[in-house]
Amino acid sequence: MSEFNICVLETPEEMARVEELQRRVWTGSETDVVPMHLLITAVHNGGLILGAFQNEELIGFIFGFPGFEQTPDGPRLKHCSHMLGIHPNFRDGGVGFALKRAQWQMLRHQGLDHATWTFDPLMSRNAYLNLAKLGAVCSTYRRSEYGEMRDGLNAGLPSDRFQVDWWLNTHRVKKRLGADSRATLNLKHIARSGLKLLYPLHYPTDSLPRPPEQIPPFERRLLLAEIPADFADLKSKDFALARDWRFFVREFFETAFEKKFIVTDFIFDHSVDDRRARGLYLLTHGESTLDQFE
After folding, report:
1. In this structure, which long-range contacts are made by residues 255-258, counting pairs with CB atoms below 8 Å and at least 24 apart in sequence?
2. Which of 157, 189, 227, 238 would you call most buried, defined as having the most Cβ atoms within 10 angstroms of its Cβ?
3. What domains can you pick out in the chain, each with its CATH number?
């Protein structure tokens, strides 16, 4: 895609444009749009909104604000990255990654070293950006985090979410966001490592993948767990199957996190010898096993 510019947004006029872009990204529910007066209040009190522009058009934005997390030593400041929205005509063009990288630079300038946000663990493209490209990790699963959502992307399913941790000053994150960032993992890397899928997906005649009927045993320190590569398409074709996937993924990751596994990477592969795109989570038992994949 053509070049775009990123800048800090602060004025009422800019907030009105962010409000309108939300309606293009999350269609169908006005109540899920963050209004401009709240956006203005946030940025005037430590919040951060960045916008991506192409030829004066706002094509993407990212919005977050300061928050606190509880630690053994008491409350600790972090950044809550709440929304990342890209105009539908400009998706898959690197805008989201560029906005997150600019956010990373701004947060480090503010003296912060930790940011968190949530995303639907069944959305492969989001998982790929957050884990593979940005270097976030996850060990927290939140059931129905936002209650009943009514927008076009989320309506009808429990709003389960991963909460990811983005440790801004770590070698892992700096390496993935730097100029010499490593290539993301693909199925060829996995094949060379000898790592096997924890469970196979079943594809009946309608070509929509079915989840396993039960949670498999966790017998290794590195696990590969596959999800549908295009959950939105699956949901539009078979809503009951989408619910089955939601509840399987809920049980799987809650079990994994109870057993001290961490989600550390995501593979989103469109290999030439496989007609289907594939989305696979990599889970590690402890950070020590990360080195061979960094």
Report:
1. 255/215, 255/218, 256/218, 256/223, 256/225, 256/283, 257/139, 257/140, 257/141
2. 227
3. 1-106 (3.40.630.30), 187-293 (no CATH)
Q: For residues 196, 251, 235 and 237, what is the CA-based torsion angle, rounded to 10 degrees?
A: 70
What digits encode the pLDDT tens for the residues 255-264?
Answer: 999 999 999 9
3-class state of residue 62 by DSSP:
strand
d(CA 107, CA 44): 16
Q: What is the pLDDT of residues 99-147, one digit of tens each?
A: 999 999 999 999 999 999 999 999 999 999 999 999 999 999 999 998 8
Q: Please give the Cα distance from 136 to 145 (Å, whole number).
A: 19
Find out whether 161 and 241 touch, Cβ atoms under 8 Å: no
Query: Cα dist. 152→25, 86, 157, 244 in Å?
Result: 9, 15, 11, 19
Does an H or E element contain 127, and which? helix 124-127
Strand 74-86 relative to strand 57-71: parallel, antiparallel, unpaired? antiparallel
CA 186, distance to chain mean position in Å, is 18
Model's pTM, two decimal places?
A: 0.91
pLDDT reported for residue 203: 81
The DSSP bridge partners found for residue 283 are 223, 263
Give the residue from 192, 173, 163 showing the smallest Cα distance to 257: 163
Q: pLDDT tens digit string along 197-212?
A: 898 888 876 789 999 9
> By three-state DSSP, how is residue 202 classified?
strand
State the sign of the Cα–Cα–Cα–Cα dihedral 8, 64, 83, 29: negative
Q: How far apart are CA 289 and CA 158, in angstroms?
A: 33
Dig out the tokens for 39 from the structure.
Answer: 């956006």
Judge whether residue 37 has pLDDT over 50: yes
